[in-house]
Amino acid sequence: MKDGLLPCSRVCRLKDINCPNDECRHWIDFEEDHNCCLIAIYENGPMTLRKIADRIGLSFARVKQIETAALKKLKSNPLANTFLF
User: Fold this and answer.
1) pTM over 0.70
2) What b-and-e string marks burial along 49-82, b requiring 16 or more CB atoms within 10 Å of the CB?
């Protein structure tokens, strides 16, 4: 399937359970999204920085700083410019 979910994410959604694997790189401490960032994206689509901050346990200001740094790196990469800007 092309839904962006891993097989374990589909099982968690189907059984309506929270992900038990806190070692997974997609695990977040946010039970409303079954502790999975992939499910959060699948169910909510694009999110505001405030929603992201709530999910990952950071302040809005810190998430904004990370976004600004990431965009700066992307803008300085000539290959990324052809795809993004």
Assistant:
1) yes
2) eeebbebeeeeeeebeeeeeeeeeeeeeeeeeee
